[in-house]
Amino acid sequence: MRIRRYTGKDIQEAMLKVKMDLGGEAVILNTRKIRRKGLKGLFSKPLTEILAAVDDDIGQKRKAAETEKPKNVNYEKARIDLLETRISQMESMLKSIYNNTRNKEEQKVTEPLEEFESAKTENASLPLSNENSVKPAENPFSFIVKRLEENEIEPEVIDVLVQNIKQYAGNSESYNEIMTVAEKTVRDMLGQPQTINLRDDGKPTVVLFLGPTGVGKTTTLAKIAAEYSLNQNKKIAFISADTYRIAAVEQLKTYAEILNIPVSVIYTPQEIKEAIDCYRDMDLILVDTAGRSHNDELQFAELKALVNTAEADEIYLLLSCGVSRSACRDILKHYSFLKDFKLLFTKFDEVHVPGIILNVRYATGKPLSYITVGQSVPDDIEVVNVDSIARSIL
Q1: What is the total count of domains within the chain?
Q2: How far is CA 8 from CA 74, 106, 227, 279, in A?
Q3: pLDDT on residue 40
Q4: 21 inside domain
Q5: Would you say residue 199 lies in a domain?
Q6: Is 30 in a helix, a strand, or coil?
C-alpha cells in the first residue's frame, strides 16, 4: 500500500491533488489543519493536510497507464480534463431534470411501473374474479406455494402466508376466491409504504441513508433531493460521510452543483452535529454514508458511532433487489443495531422476482418506502406500489 501526504490551501485543492496522483480509489486516512513553517505561518491561514493511501496494484496500473500518455500531460491539463468531464455530466443531468419537470407539468403520472405492468400481463392467466376463465389443474394452494417458491420467498414466510390464506378463505373451493384472498394476504404483509415525514417545528428533517457497498446510496440521495427540491420547493442540503472513496464525494458534489444544493464533507462521526447545525435553516438534510461490508466489524463500529451521534429524524436502510437470500440475511444481522428505520430497495429493474421485498419486510417488520428502477436522476424512483408487487409475486 502506498501512503502519501498532500497539502492545499483548502480541502478542495488537497483532495484534487490526491485524486490526480492516486486516483478515485484512494482511501483517506486522516485530514487535519497545519500551519506553515516559520513566522509567515503565524499570520496566514492554515493549510489542509490529507493523509491518503492506495493499494500497490492500483498504483502500478495507474503508473503504467500514465507512461502511455504524452510527455506534455501535466497537472493543469489533468485538472481541465476533470472539469470538462464534470461539465458534461452536468449538461446531461440538467437535460434529464428539465424534461422530467416539463412532463410532470403537462400530465400527472398515474401509471404503475413498467416492470409491474409486464408482471401483471404475465400473470393475466391467473384471474381473480372471472369464474369462467381457465384455471390451473392443480390445487390452488399448491399453485400458490409453487409461485412463492419461484419468487424466492423464504420457507418460513410461505408457511405463514398459506396458513393465513386458509384461515381467511375458510371452506371456499373457488379458485378465484382463494387467489383474491391470497393477494390481499400478501398486500397486508407488505403493509403501506411510508415516505419522508418532514418536521413541522421549523427545524430541518435529518435523514440518514445506510447500506452495503454498491447499493446505490449516492444516486438515490440525488433522486430524492431532486423530487423535494424541484417538485416540492424544499430547501435541501447534503452531508457526505463517505470519504473512503474520493469518487463518491465528487459524485455527490456534482449532483449538488446541478441542483444548487449546498454540501458538506465530514471525516469523523463527531463532526456530524456541527455540519447539521450549519444547515439549521434548511427543510431537509440528506446524509450519505460510506458503504460498509457487513463482514467488517471495525467499519461497523464507526458507522454505529455516526448513527448515534447524528440522532437523525429518519434512517433508511438500502438493499439491492439482486442480493441473494443468504447474503440478505447476513446484511440484516449486521444492521440489527438499527432500532427504527425504513426499507428502500434499489435496482428493481435488474431482477425478475421481487421476493426479497416480502422477505425483508417480514424479517424486520419495518415499513417499505421507495424503490429505484434505474440510474436516471430524478426519474427512476417511485413509492413502492404494494398492489403491483403482490400481483407479480402471485
Answers
A1: 1
A2: 18, 49, 36, 26
A3: 56
A4: yes
A5: no
A6: strand
Residue-wise pLDDT for 271-317, tens only, equals 999 999 999 999 999 999 877 665 667 777 888 888 999 999 999 99
Set of cell numbers at residue 5: 501526504
The 10 Å CB-count burial string (b at 16+, else e) for 176-206 is bbbbbbbbebbbebbeebbbbeeeeeeebbb
304: left (phi over 0), alpha (psi -120 to 50) or beta: alpha
Which domain covers residue 56, as residue numbers? 2-73
Instruction: Give which of 230, 227, 237, 231 is closest to 203, Cα–Cα.
Output: 237
- What span, in angstroms and rounded, lies between the C-alpha atoms of 129 and 133? 9
- The verdict on residue 24 lying in a domain is yes
In one-letter notation, the amino acid at residue 122 is E
d(CA 390, CA 99): 31
Residue 237 parent element (H or E): strand 236-240
Residue at 43 is within a domain: yes
Task: Report, in angstroms and rounded to the nearest whole number, the Rg of the chain calculated over CA atoms.
Answer: 25
Peptide bond preceding 127: is omega within 30 degrees of 0, i.e. cis?
Answer: no
Report the C-alpha gap between 119 and 388 in whole angstroms: 8
Q: How far apart are CA 243 and CA 82, in angstroms?
A: 19
> Would strands 263-265 and 236-240 be described as parallel, antiparallel, or unpaired?
parallel
Q: Is residue 364 classed exposed, middle or buried when 0-12, 13-18 and 19+ CB atoms within 10 A define those classes?
A: middle
